[in-house]
Amino acid sequence: MKTLFRGLLIAVVLILALGAVGWLALQRGDIPYDSLEAKYDSPASRYMDLGGGVRVHYRDEGRRDGPTLVLVHGYAASLHAWEPWVRSLSGDYRVITLDLPGHGLTRTGPGYAVGREGFGAVVDSVTRRLGAERFTLAGNSMGGGVAWQYAIDHPERVEGLVLVDAAGWPREGGGGGVLIFNILRHPWGRALLKNIDTQALVRQGLKSAYVDQSLVTPELVERYVELARAPGHRDTLLSLQSGPRRPASAQLLSSIKAPTLIMFGQKDTVIPASDGARFAAAIPGSTLILYPDVGHVPMEQIPDRSASDLKAWLKARVYPAEAAPKP
Description:
Strand order of the largest sheet: 1-2-4-3-5-6-7-8
CATH superfamily: Alpha/Beta hydrolase fold, catalytic domain
Number of domains: 1
Distance between the termini: 90 Å
Order of helices and strands: HHEEEHEHEHEHHHHHHEHEHH
CATH class: Alpha Beta
CATH architecture: 3-Layer(aba) Sandwich
């Protein structure tokens, strides 16, 4: 019996040791901002110091004398998610995209902390400094939550509101079938994932979000993984999973007066399409478009169709004269 117990003890110790070695082998350090900028910025990239160690990466593209669109990305994403729409919309509109703090190429100082509600202040500062006093604000996922809250807090600045698979409605759990979000719900999960190689989990999450597996290229996965390793980003991303949120409610959303377009993929596994119907029911006069066989990111999965729908809606509801096609 003692021999059996000793053998089991040795086996457990070996398993724990191998697990520790494997976990250590998966550790990944930060990637310097200079290296990330060299790889992921573009000729259109610009940087704006907002103080407090925040240096925002943004792009201001398109028709300078056209109506302004401001596009806000989702959790763990970056302004790159909007590139297909920028290509389609820049002929008729001025299009501003930006990386939120803790995302993309936007830098933050040591110990920087921001809640989801603080993102609205960043959008406000960037647009004011760029002289964009009134604009249509669009957001995807977490960025959609930023957008509808901004429309409530600054109604005088928002000419139109576009919610693309937007976050906001409270629910138990969250994350749907996306494994990495379900892990991040728990403190132990956040501690476990903070510094390890998350490439496999990110790939699974993107495949779930995009639905069309061919869109989840090695380059896409690498961009998500590497940008999350910018100094300070992992701390911000993890803190957003546990910080306070401003939940959507019918009473809160009923105060939105701006023309509103709601776009949702019916196969969204991150935020259910039924949330799109809830936004439409709560926001007076809003328009709802549901896309069959589309997931969490219509602007990337069906860029031409979703951009065409957006342009038609903008022309009909927000800019009937200004956005007329040029001869």
